[in-house]
Design brief:
The chain is mainly beta and 164 residues long. The chain has helices at 40-46, 89-96, 127-133, and strands at 6-12, 27-33, 49-56, 62-67, 80-86, 99-106, 113-124, 147-159. The chain folds into two domains: 1-36, no CATH class; 40-159, Electron Transport, Fmn-binding Protein, Chain A (Pnp Oxidase, Chain A, Roll), CATH 2.30.110.10.
């Protein structure tokens, strides 16, 4: 990288059929502008939309549920996130099978969003901590029952559409 977001690339030239190009044997230098991926912490801070968490139990029975954007406890760590979970099917599933997927569709965007592949690493039940990280004005889905702060490792991040 020569400067932020710009990489110098050396491209070989080739001969064209039986006629050699004037540049044959020389190298061209091109500047390719590369878009730096936005940090997940910043992405989820600044975007609104709808999220869906998919989990499966030990017998592979799938459950999907609407979930808020993930929380990032360390703003410099894009490899771990947390979700606030109630004592329902999604929570039961990640305790039995730690693998999950989170799909986020941006509000008003035309097929923009993210897909996260997740693995549960631990959970907490500290209600004060859960209340502290809740986004202001966003009520818990249910005030009843136990709440869990479930920590996930982010194994992969892909766009909403495509296989990047």
């Amino acid at each position: 990288m020569t400067e932020a977001g710009v990489r110098r690339v050396s491209l070989p030239t080739r001969s064209e059929g039986s006629h050699k190009s004037r540049l044959s044997g020389k190298r061209l230098t091109a500047h390719v502008i590369m878009e730096r991926p936005m940090k997940l912490t910043k992405y989820f801070e600044g975007v609104k939309g709808i999220g869906v968490l998919a989990t499966a139990d030990a017998q592979s029975k799938v459950n999907v549920a609407i979930y808020a954007r993930p929380h990032f406890l360390d703003q410099n760590d894009d490899s771990h996130c947390v979700f606030i979970m109630s004592d329902r099917a999604s929570h039961d599933n990640v305790k039995a099978n730690p693998h999950a997927a989170y799909l986020f569709v941006e509000e008003g965007a035309d097929h923009e969003g993210k897909r996260l592949t997740l693995t549960m690493v631990r959970e907490e039940t500290d209600l004060e901590k859960i209340q502290a990280i809740r986004r202001r004005g966003v009520p818990l889905a249910s005030e009843e029952g136990s709440k869990y702060l479930v920590h996930f490792r982010i194994d992969a991040v892909r766009p909403l559409i495509g296989a990047e």
